[in-house]
Amino acid sequence: MSYSSGRILLSSQREGQVSRFRAWVIVAVPLAAILFQVYVPLFFQFLSFLEMPLLVVMYFALMRRNQVSALLLGALVGLAQDSLSKNPLGVFGIVNTLVGYFAASVGMRLDVDQGVIRLLLSFFFYLFHQLMYWVLVRALLGQQLAFEVQKTLMLALLNAVVGVSLFHFLDKLRERV
């Protein structure tokens, strides 16, 4: 563990390095995640727990370490997700924007190339995502929505495990410098 320039747990050779991706990756991966979220649960109900758009927004925000681009990506992915689902337009847009911003902020402070850190961040950001969604639906829309703590914790763990595997795959799409 090293403490340099206000960063925590940055001990790899790539200390604080911003990852770069080709333009097609930044377009195709979120689009595939949104399509996965909309269409795969129609055929495979047991995969409906996966929040692929959230995981993709989180990955790009953590790896690119740029809060503005994470805000934009989160907003675009969230609005696209809202437009293709039965949810009110803007709720996922707001929530994914917040997740993108905070993930980019955390990415600037932590070494996010470590599997354990990725697992913990995926778990935390899934909980944050669900809590913010619950707050927005209750506060802005005035709808009664139950927040089941045990179910949310279990789904957070499942999404975190899938997230670590997904992040490992997406690492292969990074540009080599």
Descriptive report:
This protein is an all-alpha fold. The protein has one domain. Helix content is 66%, strand content 0%. The chain is built from 6 helices and no strands. The radius of gyration is 16 Å and the shape is globular. The chain starts with 22 loop residues before the first helix and ends in a 6-residue tail after the last helix.
What are the defining features of this structure?
single chain; 177 residues; mainly alpha; 6 helices; 66% helix; globular
- The low-pLDDT segments are none
Number of helices, where a helix is a run of at least 4 consecutive DSSP H or I residues: 6
How much strand?
under 5%
Structural class of the helices, strands and pairings?
mainly alpha
Helix content: 55-70%
The backbone outline, from C-alpha atoms, is globular
The CA-CA distance between the termini, in Å, is 25 Å
In total, the number of domains comes to 1
- The strand count comes to 0
Order of helices and strands, N to C?
HHHHHH
The overall pLDDT, averaged over residues, is: 89
Radius of gyration, in Å, reads 16 Å
Largest sheet: none
